[in-house]
Each structure stands twice: as C-alpha cells, then as structure tokens.
Amino acid sequence: MDTINRNAYLGTKDESLLPGTLVYDPIEKDPARYADDVRRFQGIPGVERTKNGRLFYCFYTGTEDEGSGNYVLLLQSDDDAASWKTVLAVEAPTEMTRTFDPCLWIDDLGRLWLFYAQSYTHFDGRIGVWAAVCDTPDAEQLTFAAPRRIANGIMMNKPIVTDKGSWLLCCAIWEGFDSEYNRLPGERFSNMYCSADKGETFVLIGHADYADRCIDEPMAVQLSDGRIWMLIRAKHGIGQSFSEDGGFTWSEAEDSGLGGPCSRFCLRKLKSGSLLLVNHHDFQGRNHLKAMLSRDDGKTWEGFLMIDERADVSYPDVTEDDKGQIYIAYDWKRYHEKELYLAVVTEEDILAGKIVKDTSRLRVLVNKATGVNTKR
To answer: What share of the chain is helix, strand, coil (3-state, %, to 5)?
Structure first.
C-alpha cells in the first residue's frame, strides 16, 4: 500500500485495514519494547512443529491489557522446547489498532502460516484476519511474505484440510460486543471461509449461529462420515453445529454437552483418526485443563489426562508430530504470572489418564514475562 493510500486511512476506523509491520529478531533490535522484563501481559498462545522438528510458539503481549498497543511475538525452538529464541514481532500499523489472537498452522504444502487479528480499538465490528506466510520454516533465517488480509472476523484456531483438499477456516465476528464503527449483520456469526486454491484466495461460504455464543472462537473437524463438526465457545459450555455439504449450510446449533467455563478449547483430529479435545473438565472457572480422546467421532470421550489443574490456565492449542507426540500450548495467569507453557504427551498417556511415556512432559515453561502490571 503506497503512502497516499496509507495517509487516506490514518485517523479513521479503517486504520485496521493497513498491514502491520514484521520485525525480525525484535529483542536484539529493541529490548526496551520487546524484552521479557518490560512485557506486562501475555497470553493466547499457538504452537506448530515442522517435519524436521522445529517448534514455533506464538502469543500476543506488550501493554497491560488486551487492547490497542499490543503486538504478536513468534518464538522458535530447535531443541524440542529446551530453549527458545524470539524470531519475529508483528506490530500494529497505528497506535489505535489492536493486533491480537495469533494462530500458527503448517499447511499441506509445508508452509508456516502466522495468522492474527487486527481491529480499530478493542472491537470495531469488522475486525480482520491477516496472514503472513513463510515458505521455508526450517531455514536458518526465516522470511515471511508481507501480511495480507484474508477475511473479516477473528480466526483463533487452525484451519483444516478436508478429504477433497479444500481448506476450511472458522472466522467469527463476535456476538458479545457491538460497535458503531462497522455493522455487518450478515456476517455476525461463526463463519466458515474456504480456500480451494491452497491459500491464494479465501471465500466466505456459510455460517453457524448458536444463541448462547459470545466470544465465539469456533473450530472444526471433519468426521469419518464426511460431515464437518463445528464447536463454538459459548457463555455456558460449548455449542455445536454440523454441515453435510462442506461448510456451506449448517444444522441448527445446539449445546454439545461438552461443558466449559466460557473459554477457548481445542479440538483436533489426530493422525490416528481419533479426535483430541483439550478443555476444562470438572472445573471451577478456568482450572482443570484436561486432554481427552474420542474414537467414535465425538460420541464418547476417554482418558481425561490432567494437563494443569491450577486456576487461570487457559487457551489451549495443539499440534502433533509424525511420531505421535502431541504438543499442547496454554497460558497461566496472563496478567500476573504471565507464563506460557507446553505439555508434550501421547495418545497412550491420555488414554491412561497419566504420563506413561518417558518422552512425555507436563508444565514445560516456554516463556515468562516479568514486567510490572499496575492495572490488574
């Protein structure tokens, strides 16, 4: 976007349509902005792993709360989470723009996608999903293409690749907030976007609408009979809807029966074909984060491995390597302790309800910020 167009957006609600800035090796370049000891809030993580074993971990941070002025950070580990290097920051284009809710995904071509949301102030009614893509995530020096805006809404969770090769992305416009800046009544749902050309273009194809949704954070899997199952964060538990035509039309949404404290959960299909759900279970607030498996397309669940029993653990994300190791990212007390974690487990651990593999680990600390938060 050239200078003339950029100046036309400044000072308006459309500032959020400007691309953010990619800052490589941010702590080395500007420790006063990015170092651990100046960050006063952090959370909302995502995790990915390349076929060669490199781990990536993202989150957002910067100010004292979840408003404008924050940025997204990307960490990299080449020793299976023993140590981490901060390799990239994504800065918002203006002071009034909020950059938040990142998501990592390695596509079926091996490229690393860093998705994130931008909004003018906390919620501008339209928001926007942005993506920066790295074609060679195992390279010694990472290079991402310039961020591009691919959808309205927020995409907190990884896309899926269907049995027909299409990519499906859940991109919601929250029901729980309103804004005078943009009103999009035709899109204020848990929306499904599709790419039929490996990420060249993205098209809004349908939506689900659960009456109890608030901060939707939907995610989806394809079941063994070909249906798409969408789960939706709700005020009370988790809603669900089904599509029999690849995401274009959806059943009337209903309570899934899975429960939850109105918080992010993670649903993924594993390479074995089992479904993995990481969610709060037998909870009081955001505690008792557990991993559970279903071998019958979500009809029943088993295992219930405790990932972290503490209060204020939240926002799991999951990836799996070719050997069946499952990496679960989550945060703990994002305003106070400001700690980010991984659990590394297997299906065997989950089914046993305890760690049985020597390579499995719980509460692997990825990062702790130590800046003083005076607001919380």
So the answer is: 10, 40, 50
CATH of the domain at 37: 2.120.10.10
Q: Mention every residue, 6+ apart, whose C-beta is less than 8 A from residue 150.
A: 129, 130, 131, 193, 202
pLDDT score at 3: 53
- Total tally of structural domains belonging to the chain: 1
Range of the domain at 76: 1-156
pLDDT at 5: 75
Please give the helix or strand (H or E) that residue 190 lies within, else none: strand 190-195
Q: Which residues of the chain have pLDDT under 50?
A: 1
Query: Token digits for 278?
Result: 């990481």
Secondary element (H or E) of residue 9: helix 3-9
Each residue of 291-334: pLDDT tens digit? Answer: 999 999 999 999 999 999 999 999 999 999 999 999 999 999 99
Does the residue 29 lie in any domain? yes
Q: What is the pLDDT of residue 6?
A: 84
Handedness of CA 275, 303, 324, 343 (dihedral sign): positive
- Cα separation of 373 and 116, whole Å? 24
Enumerate residues 6+ apart whose C-beta is below 8 A from 122. 66, 67, 68, 98, 177
List the structure tokens of 169.
């992305």
pLDDT score recorded for residue 8: 85
Whole-prediction pTM: 0.97
The Cα–Cα gap between 84 and 223 comes to 36
